[in-house]
Amino acid sequence: MPPPRHIAILGAGPGGYVAAIRAAQLGAKVTVIENRALGGVCLNWGCIPSKALLSVVELGEKLKKAHDLGLQLSHPPAYVPEQMVARKNRVVGGLVNGIATLLKHWGVSHVQGTGRLVNDRTVRVSLADGTETSIQADGLVIATGSSSSALPMFPVDGYDIMTSREALEIPRIPERLLIIGGGVEGCEFASLYAGLGSQVTVVEMMPRLLPSEDEEISAVIERELKKRKVRIIVENSVKSVDKTETGITSELADGEQLGCDAILVSVGRRCNTKGIGLEDVGVQLGENGEIEVDDHLETNVQGVYAIGDVTGKTMLAHLASAQGKVAADNLMGNAKTMNYDVVPAGIFTLPEIGRVGLTERQIRERGIIPNIGRFRYSALGKAHAVGDTVGLVKILADPKTDRVLGAHLVGTHAADLVHQAALAMQLNAKAQDVAGMIHAHPTHTEALMEAFEDVEGKAVHVVRKRS
After folding, report:
1. In this structure, which CATH number among 1.20.140.10, 3.30.429.10, 3.50.50.60, 3.40.50.2300 belongs to the domain 161-267?
2. Which of 74, 253, 264, 429 has the most crowded Cβ, counting Cβ within 10 A?
3. Does 441 participate in catalysis according to the annotation?
4. Which of 347, 144, 145, 172 is nearest to 264 (CA)?
5. β-pair partners for 8
């Protein structure tokens, strides 16, 4: 019997460690190389820690409504940042240990160090003690992720000028916080710090916040942020930053001067492709520094695969994990391809967003005028019962086939609820297939049922003009 294939994986984020476990499940000998913590950015400095902190602010927002709900608090709630961060660190630490346990269970070797490709089958690893070791493998997976984009006009010092990584430690609650960038990360941190009491200003160069989201959903988030006293400046940019003893002054492109006490730079991410030997192996990169891969996740170099943010696809942890499974299968001889048509995503603003598929604008750009179903939480019994009626479900369907082309939700549990629409898309179901399914009452899922019914104008709890 031939020896098992040896797979070496560079990076142990949500793509790398999942690829490692799947390859081990398929019988491979696996070595995963990581120079930081298991779980990568998502677990340690992104998805999980930000949600751990936002959950506290979300609870605080509910407590503000306690009196209206009939709950009398003996003391007004107050945030304790040190305890919030300590809890966040406990959550992260527990999950990191869980990954270590899984790797051990499946016999995956974990090498702590910085790896660099020497050739298409060898990785040289610089260890923490200053020594080096080489790992020979039958196949390689590059899963080195991405990093916050650095701009020279915003010299990050981790305190006055921060990236998301420093902001998650809540070094202080600045009286005035300027967030440069109104994308997903910027809006999530605007929700967090506005909840903690900062006077937040968000500057976005595009015409609206969350420019990649459906316009109706983006409008809800802008409205809700404004309710939290967040100032939103769009179609503008920060030209320069001047730090003084009394604070920070930023000049916008239109000449306006903004004073603040801290700045969060949230202007996108770049692929981690430098310094890992790709040029020595001949791996082809795209124009933005991403590793080019085919539908099997293989690069132009046979036996070398790439997954996750480093491929330049949509930078989502769960997409990286899905790619990791596909790459592992292909390395082990099971032909699999990636399908990017159904990739749900959540944005954890207050309220949160869930989306899958195309936006209305994208559909119209394809020459299709979609049938649209809408349902607002303000007409939902469960939303009234729990005292949170802000929300919208928007379903987009093909006018000829009734197939679901996209779903966009904002409101309580939106990031969870969107998976019902995603499953419909995955199974190629029609909007009326979902509308005809009995949904339990009282639940938030009824909002989806009503929105799917509304695609044909038959939602029971929507007031329409009678024809």
Report:
1. 3.50.50.60
2. 264
3. yes
4. 172
5. 31, 140
Token pair 């330049």 is found at 312
Q: How many residues does the chain have?
A: 467
Nearest-5° angle of CA 311, CA 108, CA 29? 85
Assigned fold of 6-147+271-331: FAD/NAD(P)-binding domain (3.50.50)
- 123/137 Cα distance (integer angstroms): 8
How far apart, in whole angstroms, are the C-alpha atoms of residue 230 and residue 121? Answer: 52
Would you say 5 and 29 are in contact if contact means Cβ atoms under 8 Å apart? yes
Residue 141's SS3 state is strand
Tokens coding 427? 């199974």
CB 408 within 8 A of CB 214: yes
Nearest C-alpha neighbor of 387 from the set 77, 73, 61: 61
Long-range contacts of 99-104 (CB under 8 A, 24+ apart): 99/12, 99/17, 99/38, 99/39, 99/43, 100/38, 102/17, 102/21, 103/17, 103/20, 103/21, 103/32, 103/38
The C-alpha atoms of residue 409 and residue 403 are separated, in whole angstroms, by 18
Give, for all 467 residues of the chain, the pLDDT tens digit.
466 799 999 999 999 999 999 999 999 999 999 999 999 999 999 999 999 999 999 999 999 999 899 999 988 889 999 999 999 999 999 999 999 999 999 999 999 999 999 999 999 999 988 999 999 999 999 999 999 887 888 999 999 999 999 999 999 999 999 999 999 999 999 999 999 999 999 999 999 999 999 999 999 999 999 999 999 999 999 999 999 888 899 999 999 999 999 999 999 899 999 999 999 999 999 999 999 999 999 999 999 999 999 999 999 999 999 999 999 999 999 999 999 999 999 999 999 999 999 999 999 999 999 999 999 999 999 999 999 999 999 999 999 999 999 999 999 999 999 999 999 999 999 999 999 999 999 999 999 999 999 999 999 999 877 65
The active-site residue out of 67, 105, 384, 441 is 441
63: left (phi over 0), alpha (psi -120 to 50) or beta: alpha
Strand partners for 111: 33
